[in-house]
Amino acid sequence: MRIHTPPQSPTEPQERRRALKTLASLIAVGAGGIGLAACSREERVGTGAAPGAPAVISKAGDKVAFKYPDNPSFDLIYLADQLGYFEGTGTRPQYVGKIAAPQIIPLVGTGEIDFGSRMVPLVISAIASGADLKVVAAGGKTLEEAPHMKYFVRKDSGIRTPKDLEGKTVGFNSFGACAEFVTKKYLREKGVDVTKINFLVVPDEQAEQSLVTGNTDLAIIHAPFSGRADRADQLVRLWSDYDLDGGLGGMAPYSAHGKFIREHPQAVRDVVVALAKAGNWVNANPEEARKLVSKRINMAIENVDRYAYVQDLVVTEPPIQYYIDILQSEGKIAPGKVAIKDVYTNEFNPFAATPAKT
């Protein structure tokens, strides 16, 4: 097992940085507000050669180095790296520093990072806005015993039913993702006026403290940090996303920049295979995985929630259609704007029985 030391992020011109910050800020205000520049039909994700200059990547010897965030989280890229699943391939991760969750998909869409893991609705909205990216591997899945996210309130809050949330503040990690759309769909089904709820962005690692101190009234927290909240004396868990939709909205896939896909198909295969091996290893060794993650995020292992992953990370269509329907009903994308096949491909996953065409 070998752990690679993350290299420093390459220096970028200030003007490019300002442009990227502007782009990332747009995604933070909601899936409907992504201001991504459209790309031409010829520059779309596909298997053919793309015109123009080669993708800007880093190299280490004869290896292709793909740019990836170095975030404190439960993530298969880090685990695959630690477990040695990139050894023997021509591909390795190049960690480019911490990137805030709302910025990940916009930066994949522009190619500033080559891969990223964020929820399906963010990818759909980015594609609808012209971003050049595609889901290449399924990621986490929701099980009753291993939810994707959990809902907590203070024990003394008096909040016990969905209707109790009207007039309250709900903290979640970003607009435009699972926490917003799964929650709003569920609350509306329970007769809640979601316009009477204040939604506030709070990073997962800070969500428990924000709730305890009264800055929020309900916190939606993702694994691994949800485990610590489960053990907090002042808090009580109301629901998980499994309770809300049976886990349909819990797939957390891995997406890649279109130009990187076109110009480095073998590297994409290497990454997808490494991810699939790591996901299957986590499913078979959940406690060992928790130990590795606990060291990475510097959290006591008893507070680290586990993750479950889609077998072989083969992408299926129901979770994608689920979010297309939600985004259309929320008025975030026009009907027919994005088709399922626009969102994903299993082309690079050798475990997929019938690879999808791009």
Automatic annotation (TrEMBL):
Every SsuA/THI5-like domain range: 71-289
Domain of life: Bacteria
Gene3D superfamilies associated with the record: Periplasmic binding protein-like II
A Pfam family annotated for this UniProt entry: NMT1
InterPro entries in the cross-refs: SsuA/THI5
Protein name: ABC-type nitrate/sulfonate/bicarbonate transport system substrate-binding protein
